[in-house]
Write a structure and sequence with these properties.
This is Helix-turn-helix domain-containing protein. With 125 residues, this protein is mainly α. Helices cover 66% and strands 8% of the residues.
Length: 125
C-alpha cells in the first residue's frame, strides 16, 4: 500500500502504535541497569559520611594503601565505585557485629569464671 495524501494519517498512526508497542516490550523484557556510578575521593568521603561512616580523606588513603577498600587508579586520581563502597560498608558492619559478639562472649565467660571461683570459696568456709 503506497502512502498517499489520503492515507498519510493512517500511516502515521500505525507508526506511532508500532513505536509504542516496541517501547513497551523493551521496558518489560529488558530492565536496563545504569552503569555503576564512579566517585572521586572527595565524593567517596561524602558518600560514606552520608551512609553514617565517619571517615576522612586520610583514612581512605590508608585503606587504599592497605588494599582494604576497592578502588581504581587513573594516573594519580583514585576512583571508587558506589556499588563497591556499599559492599565495603556491609562488610564493615558485619565485622563490627562479630567483634561485639566476641566482646560480649569474653565478658560473659569472665563473669562465669568469677562466679565459679566465688562459689568454690564459699563452699570451703
Amino acid at each position: 500500500m503506497n502512502t498517499t495524501l489520503e492515507n498519510i494519517f493512517e500511516k502515521i498512526d500505525f507508526i506511532i502504535d508500532s513505536i509504542t508497542k516496541i517501547e513497551s516490550k523493551l521496558k518489560t523484557e529488558q530492565i536496563i541497569k545504569p552503569p555503576p556510578k564512579k566517585l572521586s575521593l572527595d565524593q567517596a568521603v561524602l558518600f560514606l559520611q552520608e551512609k553514617g561512616i565517619k571517615i576522612s580523606k586520610s583514612s581512605i588513603y590508608k585503606l587504599t594503601s592497605n588494599n582494604s577498600i576497592s578502588f581504581r587508579r587513573f594516573g594519580n586520581r583514585l576512583v571508587f565505585s558506589e556499588d563497591e563502597l556499599e559492599k565495603w560498608i556491609s562488610l564493615q558492619l558485619k565485622e563490627q557485629n562479630v567483634h561485639k559478639l566476641e566482646s560480649v562472649s569474653k565478658i560473659s565467660n569472665s563473669a562465669q569464671n568469677k562466679i565459679h571461683k566465688n562459689n568454690g570459696r564459699n563452699r570451703f568456709k
